[in-house]
Design a protein that fits this description.
The protein is an alpha/beta fold. It has a domain at 39-115 and 145-195: 3-Layer(aba) Sandwich (Rossmann fold). The chain has five helices and five strands; from the N terminus they run H-H-H-E-H-E-H-E-E-E. It has a five-stranded mixed β-sheet, with helices on one face. A hairpin with a 2-residue loop joins strand 3 (147-160) and strand 4. The chain is flat, with a radius of gyration of 26 Å. 15% of the residues are buried. One of its GO terms (biological process) is peptidoglycan biosynthetic process. It comes from Desulfurispira natronophila. This is Penicillin-binding protein activator LpoB. Pfam families: LpoB.
Length: 201
């Protein structure tokens, strides 16, 4: 009887320790707080790079030259943004950050990207058939972009033992859609030192 009680007690203690080991703690952190857990590209990199590069492109002479020549602000579209790095990077969130910075600047007009335009055109076609005439969005009224913004993300990894230096290079170009003239080239670099401990907690 005494042995059975000890066995039951040991089983309960083991189960308790296993449950405690499986528990997790979740807390919210401020969006402006930087947390580099793995050393990989993260949300803060995406926001900072997009902000700095859009600030740069909007501070160059092509913008004032265009406004002076056309008496209106240019219309920009975001084209391909390619991930050529060694790791998975969610390019959709990076593109969203770029689009938000462009739109919120108020210095350029912005039109929907190709994948979004197909859905918008389908909706206008639906309205043409089913919506009241005075409320329909008209066909053939789209605004053509004057410039396209394209970019790539590349990485170089240098490792020695448990130490790694990650180098990210983001390149962007702004191209005049009519003449194919490149009016701006921007580049942003990030270097991260990652040191892994021998014993992982």
């Amino acid at each position: 009887m005494f042995r059975q009680s000890l066995h039951l007690l040991a089983t309960l203690l083991t189960a308790g320790l296993l449950l405690a080991g499986c528990s997790q703690k979740v807390s919210r952190i401020d969006m402006d707080e930087t947390r580099d857990l793995s050393g990989n590209w993260n949300d803060m990199d995406s926001r900072l790079v997009s902000r700095e590069m859009i600030d740069d492109v909007l501070s160059q002479r092509w913008l004032s030259n265009f406004v002076q020549a056309n008496n209106q602000q240019p219309t920009v579209i975001v084209g391909s943004m390619r991930n050529l790095s060694h790791e998975h990077i969610n390019m959709r969130t990076f593109i969203s950050d770029i689009q938000r910075e462009l739109i919120n600047s108020g210095q350029v007009d912005f039109v929907a990207a190709a994948e979004d335009r197909a859905e918008l055109r389908e909706e206008r076609a639906e309205q043409d058939l089913h919506a009241r005439e005075d409320t329909r969005a008209r066909m053939g009224q789209e605004i053509g972009a004057d410039f396209m913004l394209n970019g790539t993300i590349n990485t170089i990894i240098d490792s020695e033992g448990r130490t790694q230096v990650k180098y990210y290079q983001v390149d962007m170009t702004l191209t005049d859609l009519e003449s194919n003239r490149i009016v701006w080239i921007g580049q942003k670099q990030i270097r991260k030192l990652v040191e892994r401990s021998r014993v992982r907690s």
